[in-house]
Amino acid sequence: MARDGAELYTHRSDTVCTDRGSGDPVVFAHGTLMDRTMFDPQIEAFADEYRTVAYDLRARTDRYAEPYDLDDLVADAERFLDARGIDSCVLCGMSMGGFMGLRFALAHPERVDGLVLVDSMAKPHTEADQERHGATAEAIDDEPAVPRAVAEPVTEELFGATSREERTGLVDGWVDRWTTYPGRAVANEVRSWLGREDLRERVADIDVPVLAVHGEEDATLDIDAARDSYAAIPDLTFEPIPEAGHSSNCENPDAVNDALAAFLDRVY
């Protein structure tokens, strides 16, 4: 069965990943509604010099149906690294992947050589945002696939104004993909981080270099609020990304890749 010309997303019992290159490992964890392919621009840029690994988190596999939280995603990441034979890595997480990445760095410091946060944040959403996102999750929970009427407005949160105006192929392609996801997959994905704890003080314990890149047009997580939430991180580089919103690594990959290249040179 197809929806709006897109094939229904194939759910797999095993973790699907892209694993290219050799050398020091860089592991990528995607955000809500996205999948491992959002990091294709980084895989292409860095696979000649590093081992680049991007994997699908629980919501993009057949494990989406049971409730889970960020601690479960941390445990999944640990098992994934074990399965790929990766003792430690630079861990790069976008949004939800960053929420998980912060917790992973605190829980397993010996396995993190450096941490990259893409349009993420160390503090929780406001109560108003939690109520809004919770209501959306409830509304789509029983839908066989995310309705297009729900998916299209989300582009204003996932992409910046420049991308919505000038990178319509990128935006439309993701909307088509979102409408193939089971509603429960997205609902549980949202619920996994909705009530997350405030880490603004605990991030002071992260003793590896941290790079935070953040789209200047991010309408989901305000860039200044994100920067402030990382204030206690001892070794932080914060890079605003112009002409990009919440998905800055695929909206303006050149700017993100420049920042990531300099960071990896310093870590490795």
UniProtKB/TrEMBL annotation:
It comes from the Archaea. Residues 25-253 form the AB hydrolase-1 domain. InterPro entries: AB_hydrolase_1, AB_hydrolase_fold, AB_hydrolase_sf. The keyword Cell inner membrane does not apply. The keyword Hydrolase applies. One of its GO terms (molecular function) is hydrolase activity. SUPFAM superfamilies: alpha/beta-Hydrolases. Keywords: Hydrolase. This is Alpha/beta hydrolase. It comes from Halocalculus aciditolerans.
